[in-house]
């Protein structure tokens, strides 16, 4: 423990230098979606590679179909091996006039609550978060001349552009990414004083249903009562998707959905996540969806089905006595655990077709879906990381799900067969992707200390 204490002390003492390094990284306008900034993406990759090389990592900058990735290794035979992933690219900065100071001139500000913040594009998403891990490695190396674990670092430059080129690169370089577990620092804390481990991301399946009855729009005076109305047909299909208890009625829909363990539910019950705090701000008070579930379950660990749009008939001003020839709707499903988007597509189409009367036809379009990501709750690294976070923050880390997805995490599972621990120190008010993005100084400092503890704890694990 003395060794860890000296590492933590070093992080405290070196904070100003760590900030200077982060500021240098933040000054590089590595916007990935705009080709005009491609040289700056390269510059950010080179900056990071130079820093990791100076720390003694075997480092290379490698081409993908878009911006290069930085790959760095620090082997340690016999020790547990972690793969850390993050991104050096940032979102565009417009509207520029809403920034209080230029986005690529980082500064320390004090917010309304008296909290010190680092303000710049990328401060939170994801350069500040990436540097918490790098600084933790730096302190371990400064104090002990080695890291507690074998560490591979993969930092990409196209995350804000759908990670273009990355899955292909990962597939080609599987053997160089071997590790026991993946660590990602690109998520948020539960609140400014409570750390969180994001253990699940919901997947998505998206469909469009177009029902056609007559071969043209009809006059409802001539045909009303005789001609089939596609809006009625479509409405019945959509209404049939849920029962009176808010459950989705598709056969086999809940196959692969798992219950959360009692200790997780217990923790969720203790969170301040109520209809008042969650639905109140959007003008609602009563949870819809499956009856008898916690509100947090409904948005994190249970699947959901929503109609996202519906088109048909006359929707202009005044009246028009028409029976439409066609009606269509867009329907999406949020998926959890092992629900299979492919199987759902088949079930959904069969469900729709079974409700199409004679004389009518239907076209079901299925967009590309994604599976959910969820950690096995008994994975040993989860407990280890949770304990390390509690040591730093003084309160238990919450295990939560997240709404936004990080698609590469699914690829790590699929291509490398490895689970990912998502541990981040961002806050909901960091304004990522918006003007005046910030990262709390406390997130940066205690985030670095947290990684130092997590690396130590993972390195001490036996029988990995
Ligand atoms: Zn990010």
Automatic annotation (TrEMBL):
Claim: DNA-binding is one of the keywords in the record: no
Annotated ranges, domain Peptidase M20 dimerisation: 201-358
Keywords: Hydrolase, Metal-binding, Protease
InterPro entries: Cyt/Met_Dipeptidase, Peptidase_M20, Peptidase_M20_dimer
Keyword Metal-binding: yes
NCBIfam families noted in UniProt: PRK07907.1, PRK08201.1, PRK09104.1
PANTHER family, per the entry: BETA-ALA-HIS DIPEPTIDASE, SUCCINYL-DIAMINOPIMELATE DESUCCINYLASE
Protein name as it appears in the record: Succinyl-diaminopimelate desuccinylase
UniProt organism field: Methylobacterium cerastii
Recorded name of the encoding gene: dapE_2
């Amino acid at each position: 423990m003395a060794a860890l204490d000296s590492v933590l002390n070093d992080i405290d003492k070196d904070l100003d230098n760590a900030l200077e390094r982060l500021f240098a990284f933040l000054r590089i306008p590595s916007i990935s979606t705009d080709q005009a900034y491609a040289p700056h993406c390269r510059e950010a990759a080179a900056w990071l590679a130079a820093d990791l090389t100076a720390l003694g990592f075997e480092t290379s900058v490698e081409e993908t179909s878009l911006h290069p990735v930085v790959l760095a290794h620090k082997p340690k035979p016999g020790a547990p091996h972690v793969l850390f992933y993050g991104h050096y690219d940032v979102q565009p900065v417009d509207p520029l006039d809403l920034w209080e100071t230029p986005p690529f001139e980082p500064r320390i500000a004090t917010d309304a609550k008296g909290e010190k913040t680092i303000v710049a594009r990328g401060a939170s998403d994801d350069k500040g978060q990436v540097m918490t891990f790098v600084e933790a490695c730096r302190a371990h190396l400064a104090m002990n001349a080695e890291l507690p674990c074998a560490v591979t670092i993969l930092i990409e430059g196209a995350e804000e552009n759908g990670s273009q080129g990355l899955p292909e690169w990962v597939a080609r370089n599987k053997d160089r990414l071997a590790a026991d577990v993946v660590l990602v620092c690109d998520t948020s804390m539960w609140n400014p004083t409570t750390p969180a481990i994001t253990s699940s991301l919901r997947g998505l399946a998206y469909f469009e249903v177009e029902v056609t009855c007559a071969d043209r729009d009809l006059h409802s005076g001539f045909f009303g009562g005789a001609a089939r109305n596609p809006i009625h047909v479509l409405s019945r299909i959509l209404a049939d998707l849920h029962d009176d208890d808010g459950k989705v009625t598709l056969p086999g829909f809940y196959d692969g959905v798992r219950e959360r363990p009692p200790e997780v539910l217990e923790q969720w019950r203790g969170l301040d996540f109520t209809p008042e705090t969650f639905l109140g701000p959007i003008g609602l008070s009563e949870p819809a969806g499956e009856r008898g579930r916690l509100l947090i379950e409904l948005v994190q660990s249970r699947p959901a089905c929503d109609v996202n749009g519906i088109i048909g008939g006359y929707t202009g001003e005044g009246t028009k006595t028409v029976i439409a020839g066609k009606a269509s709707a867009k329907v999406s499903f949020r998926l959890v655990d092992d629900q299979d988007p492919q199987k759902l597509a088949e079930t959904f189409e069969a469900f729709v077709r079974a409700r199409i009367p004679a004389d009518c036809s239907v076209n079901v379009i299925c967009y590309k879906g994604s599976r959910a990501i969820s950690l096995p709750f008994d994975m040993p690294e989860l407990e280890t990381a949770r304990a390390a976070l509690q040591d730093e923050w003084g309160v238990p880390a919450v295990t939560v799900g997240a709404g936004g997805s990080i698609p590469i995490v699914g690829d790590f599972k699929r291509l490398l067969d490895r689970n990912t621990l998502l541990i981040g120190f961002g806050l909901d008010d960091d304004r990522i992707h918006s003007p005046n993005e910030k990262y709390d100084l406390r997130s940066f400092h205690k985030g670095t200390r947290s990684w130092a503890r997590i690396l130590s704890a993972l390195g001490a694990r036996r029988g990995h």
